[in-house]
Amino acid sequence: MAKPLSISSTSNEVPSQPLQWRAYYEMTKPKVVALMLLTVLVGMCLAVPGSVPLQPLIFGMLGIGMMAGAAAAFNHLIDRRIDGLMARTYNRPLPKGRVSITKALTFSISLAVVGFVLLYTLVNALTAWLTFASLLGYAVIYTAYLKRATPQNIVVGGLAGAMPPLLGWTSVTGEFHGNALLLVIIIFAWTPPHFWALAIHRKAEYAKVDIPMLPVTHGTEFTKTCILLYTILLAIACLLPVLVGMCGPVYLVGSTLLSCGFIYKSWELKYADKPGLAMQVFRFSIYHLMLLFIVLLVDHYLWV
Ligand code: HEM
Ligand SMILES: CC(C)=CCC/C(C)=C/CC/C(C)=C/COP(=O)(O)OP(=O)(O)O
Asked: Going by fewer Cβ within 10 Å, which terminus of the chain is more open, N or C?
């Protein structure tokens, strides 16, 4: 927390060329997009029995990945001022002046346009428009508006981040299906405990830049209660695929173990008086979602 804070949000110093690709790569939030692409892939695999047709598989992953990366880059652009003031983000390419605003804008728009054209021409129009709506949901509705407007910002804004399994599904089938929506609901319920755990740890920084994250507006204890309640809601949501007959026993056992682990960590966060628990919950959430979708995939190929 005692890191030096960057100040300039407009510096246009750009370092020598060879390392610049790293700055662009960083703006796409590659680890977040990688986990999203896993959920896209699982959405594709669950949409059809047997193997996924190659064209939607390749160009769907590519187009959705590019548009999600573009959305993340727009987030870097819009948030460059507050990012420069927070210890977690002050080193990002825009506040540090590693990439100019004009170049970042050109990069984001190009990535979004190429991604959209790939999806529209080589996958299908429904997926292209749904992905575009997700991009707008994250870059415009969440980042530019909700984030600064309400402590429920990430609950509503989380819908954009929850869309990838549906995007994978429609890439392959060209139509909506209730089962894909169940996967969206799971990520939607997962997002608040994922983010609020981090927000507890970074509460002072969000307060400093006037972003009304839940721990800032309603306090740490209230946020811990909400995390626990959402984790229980998530456990219920994780049972829905079994209840509709979409998944089998491997998923039931795997997801139940993961749910118990997550509830245990959230319970501990609320009731144990130990330091570092908030970041443990945050890290656990990432492994939880990754393993959950791997288990979905394993179950699908063993079950179908
Ligand atoms: C509105 C919804 C979401 C919010 C507000 C949010 C917030 C965040 C934040 C602030 C971080 C950065 C932590 C850091 O810099 O140390 C982060 C990390 C991460 N998030 Fe989320 N997240 C959301 C949705 C998602 C979704 C839908 C996924 C994947 C499906 C995801 C996957 C990840 C991963 C993998 C990381 C770790 C990245 C790294 O280590 O570089 N997040 N999240
Ligand atoms: C097309 C499509 C599927 C779009 C989804 C795009 C996407 C990358 C969503 C990620 C959600 C996320 C990391 C939110 C954190 O933003 P923040 O501004 O609260 O966090 P930060 O301070 O780390 O930037």
From this structure: N
Count: domains in the chain: 2
Phi, psi for residue 228 in degrees, rounded to 5: -60, -45
* Stated pTM of the model: 0.94
**Identity of residue 145:** Y
ipTM for the whole complex = 0.96
Q: How far is the CA of 14 from the centre of ligand 1 (A)?
A: 27
Task: Report pLDDT digits (tens) over 7-29.
Answer: 334 444 555 555 689 999 999 99
37 Rama class: left (phi>0) / alpha (psi -120 to 50) / beta: alpha
- Closest ligand relative to 163 C-alpha: 2
Cα separation, 270 vs 257, whole angstroms: 20
CA–CA distance, 151 with 123 (Å, rounded to integer): 37
Q: 83 and 213 share a domain?
A: no
Assign residue 101 the CATH number of its domain.
1.10.357.140
Q: What are phi and psi of 29, to 5 degrees?
A: 50, 65
Residue 202 makes CB contacts below 8 A (sequence gap 6+) with 86, 88
